[in-house]
Amino acid sequence: MTQPQRPGHEVDPKLLELLVCPLTKGPLVYDKARQELVSRGARLAFPIRDGIPIMLADEARRLEDAELNS
What we know:
Largest sheet: 5 strands, antiparallel
CATH topology of the domain at 29-69: N-terminal domain of TfIIb
Radius of gyration: 11 Å
Shape: globular
């Protein structure tokens, strides 16, 4: 179940620059609307809860083909 982002919990831009996918070590794309970090290489979206990226594969959402093409 996805928890909504509470107001005042923004992700630190410096942190976003440092993070990579824990599986592929590739780049992540920040999806602000869904509060996720997307790894196209791993086809996963890692949730961000209360401003903290949850970089665990077990917590990630699998991406559909349509999401990868957009």
